[in-house]
Write a structure and sequence with these properties.
By secondary structure, this protein is an alpha/beta fold. It has 17 helices and 12 strands. The protein has an 8-stranded mixed sheet, with helices on both faces. Strands 8-9 form a two-stranded antiparallel ribbon. A two-stranded antiparallel sheet has the order 10-11. Bound molecules: pyridoxal-5'-phosphate. The site of pyridoxal-5'-phosphate has 16 residues, from α7.
Length: 548
């Protein structure tokens, strides 16, 4: 701490807050550590000849040597250890500030199973007779997810939640085409606080997206839904609880209304952590749902590790699922034959198998009762945070105010921002000084100065108390020493990153659209026509439904 910080005292338990200081190694890029002639382990002659024999044909071979740095084994080890020490990773901190990403503990024992040669060294083209153990695991995972969702079929091929949702949109399209209504049903309805990947995937496939806004009580508006249903409705894509943590109490009415209009209903269940063993998509009447195995089922998160999205469907939508599934025959496990309605593969082969093994191990370790306990603990943790943080002046909880959320809450620092000029981003940067990673995407930005916390079942009361104390301290600092907060982080390994560089098409092309703008001279698309007014109370800022 700086001497300025030492001199301050605040009227709450400061001892909970750590005197954190990130190491700074000033580590060069590994290419700058290049030391010609140095190497880790050299493959033996036999290894080299195997490579040579299986070399691809000349036309696809490299023309120049691979420009890899030459560096000794110990130097490589030190390089990456130093980098890891500079990272405020999920295993190091109370990573609850990435709400809606469900950053729960990924049990290390599961790495043993996923890293074992029985799954890690499998080749997707090897004969199924030599892969029966892995096939059984995939089959049983399908069965567990059927039980957990209540659905009839599961595809585990998608490599992310968004990919599974994209697969669901393609299934909806194929379903209506098979019924001769493909061109007529061109609208997909979602809610503003459903995860943005629902609207984004629908738009990517070519649907017109209709977005519903909360009613005056903060819940998705059933009347607004009814007013936009028609013979053009292809589907409802809805996240519940929404990314605000609000659970739609009329969800079955939503589903029924869409069914009456001839639409398909898809349930984004990436926020299922508070529902496991308690509520199922089937009983809510949905035709399809998806889970993020990398959120709810403990496997490492998408941006920090391999992901897997499970797409589940009732019998009526099952023929339209992507990817193969494992079926049990009287003698062995086989890949199912793709039917004539199956949609195109989402990725090659069968999905991210090591992740499927991790999720399977997690479910096996917990059992049915354990899964329910996960949900109950996650909700309890979230309610505890909610109750304690409600005491912080300047922090509010817009929409469905006063109501309990499920497993996460989207808070707003708007009042503190108006009082002090601080922003949620600056509060997040200051939290890094206390050893906490606090950042998430809150798109679309309807809740002003948002902070979404999702404590999951993985954190103890003491850890949550540490987090609460650091937030309280930061809010007080904003009132009494705003410069320290605004110039944070001070004790982190790096300062804030200049984000301009990552969005400047002159520097990077981080997406296909950015690439097209940069190299093909395409213009930025027109922004969506609706802009949230800022001069109204929050619940009145939104229209009832908005077409994109
Ligand atoms: C509710 C919800 N839906 C969908 C997604 C998209 O999943 P992914 O990031 O794996 O694409 C997320 C991401 O965490 C999510 O929270």
């Amino acid at each position: 701490m700086t001497s300025r910080e030492d001199a301050r005292t605040y009227p709450f338990q400061k001892s909970l807050i750590r005197n954190y200081q990130a190491p700074r190694w000033d580590e060069p890029l590994i290419f700058e550590l290049n030391s010609p002639g140095h190497a880790g382990v050299l493959p033996d002659d036999e290894g080299l000849s195997v490579v040579a024999e299986s070399a691809p044909e000349k036309s696809v071979q490299r023309k120049t040597a691979l420009n890899l740095p030459e560096i000794g084994q110990a130097q490589v080890l030190r390089h990456y250890l130093r980098l890891s020490q500079e990272t405020l990773g999920a295993d190091l901190n109370v990573d609850i500030g990435q709400g809606t990403c469900t950053m729960k503990y990924s049990p290390k024992v599961n790495e043993k199973f996923s890293g074992s040669s029985l799954s890690a060294d499998m080749h997707p083209l090897q004969d199924v007779s030599t892969a029966q153990g892995t096939m059984e695991i995939i089959h049983n995972l399908q069965e567990y997810l059927k039980e957990i969702s209540g659905m009839d079929k599961v595809s585990l091929q998608a490599g992310s939640g968004s990919a599974a949702i994209y697969g669901a949109v393609k299934a909806v399209q194929a379903y209506h085409e098979a019924r001769g209504e493909g061109s007529q049903r061109d609208e997909i309805i979602t809610t503003i606080f459903s995860h943005p990947s629902n609207a984004a995937t629908a738009k990517t496939v070519g649907y017109k997206v209709i977005t519903l806004y909360p009613d005056e009580n903060g819940y998705p508006d059933l009347e607004a839904l009814k007013s936009v249903l028609s013979e053009r409705t292809a589907a409802l894509f809805i996240t519940n609880p929404e990314d605000t943590g609000v659970f739609n109490p009329e969800i079955t009415d939503f589903v029924e209304a869409v069914r009456q209009a001839g639409g398909v209903t898809f349930y984004d269940q990436a926020n299922a952590n508070g529902l496991l063993g308690i509520a199922r998509a089937r009983e809510a009447g949905f035709d399809m749902c998806h889970f993020n195995l990398h959120n709810t089922f403990s496997t490492p998160h998408a941006c920090g590790g391999p992901a897997a999205g499970a797409l589940c469907a009732t019998d009526s939508l099952a023929p339209f699922l992507h990817g193969p599934q494992v079926v049990r025959t009287p003698t062995r496990f086989e890949w199912s034959k793709q039917g004539k309605y199956a949609t195109a593969d989402i990725r090659p082969f069968y999905g991210v198998v090591p992740n499927l093994v991790r999720a399977y191990a997690w479910i096996r370790a917990l059992g049915a009762e354990g899964l329910k306990q996960v949900a109950e603990t996650a909700v309890l943790n979230s309610n505890y945070l909610h109750a304690e943080l409600s005491k912080i002046a300047g922090l509010s909880i817009p929409y469905a105010s006063g109501e309990y959320r499920i497993e996460q809450v989207r808070y707003s620092w708007q009042e503190l921002a108006e009082e002090t000029g601080i922003s949620t981003g600056e509060i997040g940067a200051r939290m890094a000084d206390y050893g906490f990673h606090y950042w998430t995407s809150h798109h679309p930005y309807i809740v002003p100065e948002p902070m979404t916390l999702e404590p999951t079942e993985s954190y103890s009361k003491r850890e949550l108390d540490e987090y609460i104390a650091a937030l309280k301290l930061t809010a007080e600092e904003a009132r009494h020493d705003i410069d320290t907060v605004k110039s944070a982080p001070h004790r982190s390994s790096i300062h804030t990153i200049d984000q301009e560089a990552t969005t400047d098409p002159e520097t990077w092309a981080t997406s296909w659209r950015a690439y097209r703008r940069k190299y093909l001279g395409e213009q930025r698309p027109e922004p969506s026509t609706w802009v949230a007014p800022t001069n109204l109370p929050i619940p009145q800022r939104a229209p009832k439904a908005h077409h994109r």
